[in-house]
Amino acid sequence: MLTFIARRLLLSIPTLLFISFAVFMLLQLAPGDPMAQVPLTVPDAVKEKMREALGLGEPPLVQYWKWLVQVFWIEPKVLIDYLTASSTLFSWLPDTALYQGELRVISWQTRSPVMDIVVQRMPQTLWVVGLAYVVGVLIALPIGVYSAYRQYSVFDQAGTFVTMIGFSIPPFFTGPLLIVIFSVGLGWFPSIYDTTHEVTDWDSFVVQLQQMIMPVMVLALQTTAQISRYMRAAMLDNLGADYVRTARAKGLSEAVVVNIHVLRNSMIPVVTVIALGVPAIFGGAIITENVFKVNGIGQLLITALFANDLPMVMTLTFIFAVLIVLFNLIADVLYGVLDPRIRYD
Amino acid sequence: MTEPVPASPKAIEALRDEGPLAPPRSQAADVWAQFRKHKGAMMGAAVLIFITLAVLLGPYIWTLDPQRLDIRNKDLRPIYTALWDGTANVSWGHPFGTDNLGRDQLAQMIAGGRASLAVGWAAMVLSLLIGTGVGVLAGYFRRLDGPLMRITDLFLSLPILPLLLVAVTLFRQPLRAAFGPEGGMFILIVTIVGITSWMPTARIVRGDILALKEREFILAARSIGTTSGKIIRRHLLPNVLSPIMVSATLGLATAIITESALSFLGVGFPSDFPTWGKMLADAVPRMSEFPERVVLPGTAISLTVLSVNYLGDGLRDALDPRLRGR
Amino acid sequence: MLDTETPDPIVRIDNLRVEFQTKSGRVAGVKDVSFAIAPGETVCIVGESGSGKSVSSLSLMRLIEFSGGDIAGGRILFDRKTGGALDLAGADQDLMRQIRGNEIGMIFQEPMTALNPVFTIERQLTEGLRVHRGLSRGAARARALELLREVRIPEPVRRLQQYPHELSGGMRQRVVIAMALACKPRLLIADEPTTALDVTIQAEILALIDRLKRETGTAVMFITHDMAVVAQMADRVVVMFRGEKVEEGPVARIFDAPEHPYTQALLAAVPKLGEMAGTDAPAPMKLVGRDDQDTDPIPGTTTPLLRVEGLTTRFPVQGGFFRRIVANVHAVEDLSFTINRGQTLSLVGESGCGKSTAGRSVLRLVEPLSGTVDLDGTDIIGLNDRDLRRARVHMQMIFQDPFASLNPQMQLADQVAEPLWNYGGMGLSKDEIGDKVANLFDRVELPRSFMQRYPHELSGGQRQRIAIARALALNPKLIVADEAVSALDVSVQAQVLNLMLELQAELGLSFLFISHDMAVVERVSHHVGVMYLGRIVEIGPRRAVFEDPRHPYTQALMKAVPIADPARRKSERDLNFKPIPSPIHPVGYEPVANVYEEVGPGHRVLVSESGY
Amino acid sequence: ERASDGQVNIIYWQAPSILNPFLTGGTKDIEAASLVLEPLARYDETGALVPWLAAEVPTLANGGFSEDKTQLTWKIQEGIVWSDGTPFTSADVKFTYEYCTDPQGGCAQLAKFENVASVETPDDLTVVVTFDSPVSNPYQPFVGAQSPILQQAQFADCTGANAPSCTDQNFYPIGTGPFTVAEFKPNDVITFEANENFRDPAKPAFATVNFKGGGDATAAGRAVMETGEFDYAWNLQLAPDVIASMEQGGMGTPVAGFGTGVERVMLNWTNPDPALGPDERAVIGPHPFLQEPAVFKAMSMAIDRPLLSEVGYGDAGKPTCSWVAGPEIYAIEVEGCFEQDIAGANALLDEAGFVDSDGDGIREANGVPMSLVFQTSTNAVRQDFQALLKQWWSEIGIETELRNIDASVFFGGDPGSPDTFQKFYADIEMYQNTFDGTDPQSYFGNGLCDKIPSPATQWQGENVSRFCMEEYDALHAQLTQIDDPEERVRISQELNRLAFENGMMIPLVHRGRISAASNTLGGVVLNVWDSELWNVADWYRID
Ligand SMILES: Nc1ncnc2c1ncn2[C@@H]1O[C@H](COP(=O)(O)OP(=O)(O)OP(=O)(O)O)[C@@H](O)[C@H]1O
Ligand SMILES: Nc1ncnc2c1ncn2[C@@H]1O[C@H](COP(=O)(O)OP(=O)(O)OP(=O)(O)O)[C@@H](O)[C@H]1O
Ligand SMILES: [Mg+2]
Ligand SMILES: [Mg+2]
Ligand code: NI
């Protein structure tokens, strides 16, 4: 298993390089100039200087190389410095000073290191999009299980109906709808997410819950629709299997048969589906974030895009690619963990 | 106990296999018979046919120009609101009401449906073609598996928006010159949605092909000299139809919704070109005063997606001879 | 006649009727079945596939509801330990849960799928104990261990922590048996417990069940379609046919004097080992009710058609960090044999000994590592892809599983015509292809009305005939029949075997016949090769090998084969099997070349290392 | 009393990405920074100049502005300290000048210092700005939210090429304003705290400001007027009926103010034919038919301006036919301009020989169909305008193809993008822009021939329509020389008229700005001439 993981990790390096290169070249094709925000009055010579300071004007390959160095060499150094200096986990280690003020990946838009902003955005995205995913999955699983167990029952039919509707209604409609009902009409939840809110005690936790509930539900609806379909299919596959009959012949109760024997087997494909869906969390949910003003990674990406902030777009895309590759691996490993039949060597 | 012993043993009769009892029928009739049994599918088909006919023939029956502004008749409510609200501003001339600039909602629904359905179907078909193609090749030819799956990863990590923006700026002009502003944008959107949504299909198909490849009938086909191309066409593709169907139904919904999301973000069709998604997005700010403006396109999208979903279910059952027999 | 019924049967089924709700209305799986089982007695239920054996047993457990059936009539009177008889047909599921696994144990047909793949053996074994006996984890574990010892699993302690896929089929079936026995049930239902197993393992399992019954006095309801197994196991026999009981009686009576024509036909169709003693050439079986049959022996010719020399096939096992090849599965090791025109060579051996691989290597459906294959002057191994495809016209294959070897989505006529299409119609026009396909259907005795049907609408035997028709379409010289009849019912098997023999007689076909069933092999072959661990350990004329087995492995194999004759029961003591060693060897391992000793004309025995 | 009213919540639907107004052109950034950084003087809600950090506005009358119009002497108020407690001196002002004019720095507000020859500091409270030539409007540097004063101590190391990478300074500037930055999350939210050292001990009333950015105008308006989560929402570009229905929410009210913004349709004086290739499009004139007086006059006549105003802006809009419509004195009245006259427009076109010769409903000009690509930014009201205009023009036989582009791209000025309003790769486009203060002189300069954007100027330049007319240039030159207010008004009106009648653009609506304030928020005075948050120190909570 360990060699399997190690080998896959090693293999993923060329994959990631390939992906990042392809994305980089694609973005190069895009017209646009980070000098966009610089006003008209700045003389050309000055602009040229600024351009050079940002590393433009060099051949794309050189830019790509610089970017690689920044991402793979300089940023890790900053991270290690941070960990040894101020994180709770590693601060007992002697403080390192690896980062010597080299140029980091700088956003053209805010003129600050891209990574800092990404780190700043992570919590919102994780809280909302991540939680939505968890909630969606938690709702989807029982629905899927019960739909399959009572195939073609009223519950099953209604489940199919509702999940398909959930799937076909865009979030830019459900979002405002919820706002009109719950924020404007009932005044239960805030319509705008407060990214500065900190959870310190029970009350603030309740506030946090209130502001998360609507975006989480909008997003969860989509997840639920998909995962419950997969769960139902997997359950149906397994309910007819021979071992289920064996389990029943042992005199086990239906609850044990379904919730332990069948469920455990059905989870194998579903867990990988779930794992493969995780990267999308970090990609953010642009529209939902937009509707509820959860300024997470999705919002970051889209503003960066419109502002032509290539380093930001590039880095976010790359992080996304890393996650996809990583979760592909995790899905495979999970598959092996859940299914003893799979052997990795 | 005493068993009556038959006078003349007709044992061979006993040993003869029972054949299928029902008389053979043509394949099409069989498929149809099975399909008809699926109530959901029949409903789905009916709704889908209705919607399709409505958007295709609608403009000939309801001849109002969807883009025509009639500012004096703006903000009319649909005719049915008169049922409970006698004071509602309604007119038989605009049964679904009008929007804030007085465009006829019925005509917009029809025109919007044309665009949404066209985008949905075209993008879905494109993504299915790519997905199935890549999946089959990766699953069948070992050597292609690695490279193709890496490419799948690449596409998975491509965010759709940068791609769209790049594509819009690079190709809008030539496409517009060749196909007109709407046609060009249509091709762009379809292509982008298509090439950013085929990956799940490819993965699923690949998985199924890998499993099917180990089945004996593929080996049997090889032993009777079937070439790889024919094995794929005759033996593999028909057997992965069912996952492809599922992808197709999900794909149609995704395509319609992606198009509307693009309009929402302002990178889609021209603003006066109605699609269901755009109507929905445009109506959201006035949702509480004019709920029908979100309900009508919203229902249309959901109905389409639902009917395609049920239709897909039924077709899958009907096309699979194993299920058909039962 | 009057049965001598034991006064107090443990279970008694009266006029059982089970129906299924299907899309085309309600169908009866079991129409009218009545029988009883007394304590300490083994009742064998025999009958063909689909005759309602499993449905009867599942009804007894009231598991039939979960497969969509329901008991439409009749009674199932079960004598509970406490408090007399209970009609299971009307008992509620809560009560049934107390009976299932506790008072009635059940063993299922498929050891491969009957165990939950994701739980350890311990977990699955102890589950029932903890539910019914309320044992603690530790006590349940101790009992599980005891059970594994009882069913004679090697290394029982280790097994507890293993997962089903880590055990061989035989071991899994023993686990299933242990599970069924866990709570010392008073009735044991065994639904075809050995059908999927090798003869050697089958013999062990049968012996095991027999011993347990003797030791514990459990009543056994034994379901099978294999008359040889019936002869070995049964006290009494119930014969079922299309949902009805057609005959019942003590085992000796059924075998000696079957009354119902179906039973007679069934028994006639069973090949019995030793039947062909004294003959050289195979001959079709005489089937009851068929008067027009030609049962002349088929001598074949002595001109060689296929010559295989030193055929070796290995499958690489990858491993390590760089996925390099670390070992090889030595599936076929230095195989040499010859098949004459119009004759049949059979390869026999246990599961995994490389029979299929050998057959496929000959056709180059798997690439052999080395060796020569010479088919009528063509060097098959040396051909490039295009020529190989051409050469395939002359050699065809029939596969073991008639359910898996036909494309479920394609009409039968198309599947039979496909080989012709592949070779541009072999010079035939479209209509001529149609005619030819129709003729092939006639040839394999399938009605032409089947042409537009799909595989799932046919029974196994019919499908296998389609597979034969497909193999015949190109008029091949050689057909490799890989377990072509193993999945079929005896009566159907007999028909298919006869068909193959007829075809051989008429068309002069040569067969490479692969099977693990010694009785069938005896019936059809001119020559026999016995394989063990990828090698042929003994090869020669069928008569020589069967009547005078020389290699110890051949001798052991012969002993294990059950004989369809209740008078010749085997005892457990005769059995002596070593576990088969692994065919996986690290890279660089070079096995010794095979050295044979000629013990008779054409009868050669491996004298070098065989692994046995 | 300072910091007694808790928190005030402000929402801008565009999120600030930096708090240094010298490094950004974005209104959102500049206005956010205006809570912290202050200029010497600024405009009030009437457009009048008021002293801010300065003790008084220097004028000719009080002698602060030299007679030769080349020297301006500012007197700084006494006792002003930075939020870190250090005194605010003239050195900071001089430093700000040096900071922005550093050739390496890429200052975004360089235009403010265009004619400045030097900045001297005779003493700690005196700043003398010397211009290299006489100027009629000397109130450019250090006036208004776009050119506030930076602290020398903080930015000393951030001049020139270092400017962009001084993240801390750019995110957490030290200022003299009522608030200090507590936390800055780029493109998301800023938390401000009351400035301990603010010059008025009673202000600000709020202890903290939560400045949220991002989203869309609808949600922002809703958050103030319907749910009451926020106290102030900036610039609600929403249809009047939407705003009206939000007001029903009862939590807040819209506040409107008229500035200089005129929504207008710019006509392209060059030929945007894609066939010409990127370097020649929008450079080579003339347009095949747009410069024909009959054409643009007919287009203007076909418009129902009062209707547009009502549909798009309601009370916050007035139909206009002036390019510069505010302050009102400069506006012109054009006879019949507010009446829609389709028939007249048709007649005009027929007369000029633009007829529909092939019967497809579209007129031809010299053989080319009169078909226009009409672009604007993505915004519900603008799309409604587009649809209406399209319809009206179709009634006079002119076909229009609509296109809308995301605002950040359209106004982004990115020379690489083909979609900026400056590049003008379309026949007509619609937008509005404004100017600071009340004097239109420099704004009228946007019509001069030498302000035409072209590849040579990286597509920068304010004369977007590429209108070029000797008479106009001459008249504008005259304006720069004249001080007499009445004469200035006359010339300005003349310039307005020239622009309108010669087809530089088609004015549509003089639009006000609408923001929304909570009913519990007091002291809000909407100022369209400066930062909307100019008087945030006076805001307080109504109980
Ligand atoms: N779930 C079901 N639905 C419909 N019909 C069924 C079902 N299960 C069994 N049957 C029918 O009941 C009949 C008896 O089947 P059963 O499984 O008992 O046969 P069997 O004798 O055990 O055969 P085999 O030897 O193949 O196991 C068959 O005709 C079968 O088609
Ligand atoms: N594709 C393959 N890759 C790796 N090992 C294989 C492959 N096919 C067969 N083997 C191994 O080769 C050996 C011989 O297999 P083969 O299928 O030829 O046995 P068999 O005699 O036909 O058995 P059975 O009676 O079960 O069909 C087995 O150990 C098997 O695990
Ligand atoms: Mg059975
Ligand atoms: Mg085999
Ligand atoms: Ni009797």
From TrEMBL, chain A:
Top-rank taxon, per record: Bacteria
Compartment list: Cell membrane
Membrane spanning stretches: 125-149, 161-189, 209-227, 270-292, 312-338
InterPro entries: BPD_transp_1_N, MetI-like, MetI-like_sf
All copies of domain ABC transmembrane type-1, residue ranges: 122-331
Keyword field: Cell membrane, Membrane, Transmembrane, Transmembrane helix, Transport
Membrane topology qualifier: Multi-pass membrane protein
GO cellular component: plasma membrane
Gene Ontology process terms (BP): transmembrane transport
Coiled-coil intervals, chain numbering: none
A Pfam family hit: BPD_transp_1
PROSITE patterns: ABC_TM1
Principal subcellular localization: membrane
Protein family (similarity comment): Belongs to the binding-protein-dependent transport system permease family.
Protein name: Peptide/nickel transport system permease protein
Source taxonomy: Bacteria, Pseudomonadati, Pseudomonadota, Alphaproteobacteria, Rhodobacterales
UniProtKB/TrEMBL annotation, chain B:
Pfam family, one: BPD_transp_1
Protein name, as recorded: Peptide/nickel transport system permease protein
PROSITE patterns listed in its UniProt record: ABC_TM1
Similarity comment: family membership: Belongs to the binding-protein-dependent transport system permease family.
GO CC annotation: plasma membrane
TM regions (residue ranges): 41-62, 118-141, 153-171, 183-205, 240-269
Biological processes annotated in GO: transmembrane transport
UniProt membrane topology term: Multi-pass membrane protein
InterPro entries: BP-dependent_transpt_permease (IPR050366), MetI-like (IPR000515), MetI-like_sf (IPR035906), OppC_N (IPR025966)
Domain ABC transmembrane type-1 intervals: 113-312
Keywords, comma-separated and alphabetical: Cell membrane, Membrane, Transmembrane, Transmembrane helix, Transport
SUPFAM superfamilies the record matches: MetI-like
Superkingdom as given in the UniProt entry: Bacteria
Localisation: Cell membrane
UniProtKB/TrEMBL annotation, chain C:
Membrane topology: Peripheral membrane protein
Name recorded for this polypeptide: Glutathione import ATP-binding protein GsiA
Organism domain of life: Bacteria
Family as reported in the entry's similarity comment: Belongs to the ABC transporter superfamily. Glutathione importer (TC 3.A.1.5.11) family.
InterPro entries listed in its UniProt record: AAA+_ATPase, ABC_transp_ATP-bind, ABC_transporter-like_ATP-bd, ABC_transporter-like_CS, Oligopep_ABC_C, P-loop_NTPase
EC number of this enzyme: 7.4.2.10
Native organism: Roseivivax lentus
Any one of the GO CC terms: plasma membrane
MF-aspect GO terms: ATP binding; ATP hydrolysis activity
Keyword presence, S-adenosyl-L-methionine: no
Subunit structure: The complex is composed of two ATP-binding proteins (GsiA), two transmembrane proteins (GsiC and GsiD) and a solute-binding protein (GsiB).
